[in-house]
């Protein structure tokens, strides 16, 4: 199934022959910016009684009001335990949702806002799982990513910064936060186009994590030796320049064949490049269709 969101708030569902199956629209809904799916839902969607059996809208929620981030930051600083806030400015007029992502465990929906806040929501009711939003950015969240086991989460913002969290597995009666902050890094000097987690290398225990920027750099982070925030924070493992003139636009893992794994990118010159994960050496370059706009996002399965 193909799903699209439009600038007038309409969500349309198509089959693989691009035939319209059904659509839904709310008069109160603004431009659709992101769509994310729970691929293993525990909720049975109610269906209408007519022959067409179209799904109906279950729930719609407005974002909760923002707390006083400055007082939260001061309390965290006194306790020497930075979890929720490092950028206390609220920017309350910037309320648009700019990124959405379901956890691979299908236990939460992460919602990124234009003001840099992150809400952790229940995957069915959309109620906040954390009473306090995470506020480690002052600009819009544009990408959210998880590891396959959902032990790590990361996002990129419009201030060229990546922020990484690890799931809180030792929540006490006094600390109910879902995520612990590992660190953040202003690692690119041009907009970040994609972020990606991957399985751990054979000689390391922590998963791999990459960011791809318009500065033509693919950066890998050292999660094994990162965290907590602020010291040592998020550490960079290596930086690879992967383009000379083109702008890299998106990044994914190539389907594994044999023992070696590969990364694939798409760039502004309509080309796809395959890199070996170990040496980041180019193993193939392929020219795609050159009509329309270059590929901005893709997913390889």
How would you describe this structure to a colleague?
4% of the residues lie in helices and 36% in strands. The chain has 301 residues and is mainly β. The strands form 5 sheets. A 4-stranded antiparallel β-sheet has the order 4-5-6-7, with no helix packed on it. It folds into 2 domains: 68-241, Methylamine Dehydrogenase, Chain H, CATH 2.130.10.10; 247-300.
Describe the structure concisely.
The protein has 301 residues and is mainly β. The chain has one helix at residues 69-79, and strands at residues 2-5, 10-14, 20-25, 97-102, 109-113, 117-121, 134-135, 141-146, 152-157, 162-167, 179-185, 192-198, 208-213, 217-221, 236-241, 248-254, 262-267, 271-276, 282-287. A hairpin with a 5-residue loop joins β2 (10-14) and β3.
Any key phrases for this structure?
301 residues; mainly beta; Methylamine Dehydrogenase, Chain H; 2 domains; four-stranded antiparallel β-sheet; 1 helix; 19 strands; 36% strand; WD40/YVTN_repeat-like_dom_sf; WD40_repeat_dom_sf
């Amino acid at each position: 199934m193909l799903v699209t969101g439009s600038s007038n708030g309409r969500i349309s569902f198509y089959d693989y022959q691009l035939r319209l199956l059904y659509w839904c629209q709310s008069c109160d809904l603004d431009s659709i910016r992101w769509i994310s799916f729970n691929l293993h839902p525990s909720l049975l969607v109610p269906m209408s009684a007519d022959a067409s059996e179209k799904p109906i809208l279950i729930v719609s929620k407005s974002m909760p009001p923002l707390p006083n981030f400055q007082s939260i930051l001061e309390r965290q600083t006194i306790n020497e335990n930075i979890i929720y806030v490092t950028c206390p400015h609220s920017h309350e007029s910037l309320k648009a949702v700019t990124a959405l992502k379901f956890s691979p465990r299908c236990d939460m929906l992460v919602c990124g806002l234009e003001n840099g806040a992150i809400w952790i929501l229940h995957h069915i009711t959309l109620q906040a799982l954390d009473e306090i939003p995470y506020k480690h950015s002052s600009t819009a969240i544009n990408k959210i990513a998880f590891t396959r086991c959902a032990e790590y989460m990361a996002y990129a913002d419009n201030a060229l910064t990546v922020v990484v969290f690890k799931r809180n597995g030792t929540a006490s009666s006094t600390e109910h936060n879902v995520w612990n902050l590992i660190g953040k890094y202003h690692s690119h000097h041009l907009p970040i186009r994609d972020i990606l987690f991957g399985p751990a290398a054979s000689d390391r225990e922590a998963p791999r994590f990459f960011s791809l920027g318009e500065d033509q750099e693919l950066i890998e982070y050292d999660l094994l030796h990162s965290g907590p925030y602020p010291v040592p924070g998020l550490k960079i493992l290596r930086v690879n320049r992967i383009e000379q003139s083109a702008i890299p636009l998106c990044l994914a893992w190539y389907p594994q064949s044999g023992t070696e794994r590969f990364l694939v990118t798409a760039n502004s010159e309509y080309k796809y490049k395959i890199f070996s994960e170990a040496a980041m050496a180019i193993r193939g370059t392929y020219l795609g269709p050159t009509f329309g706009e270059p590929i901005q996002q893709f997913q390889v399965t």
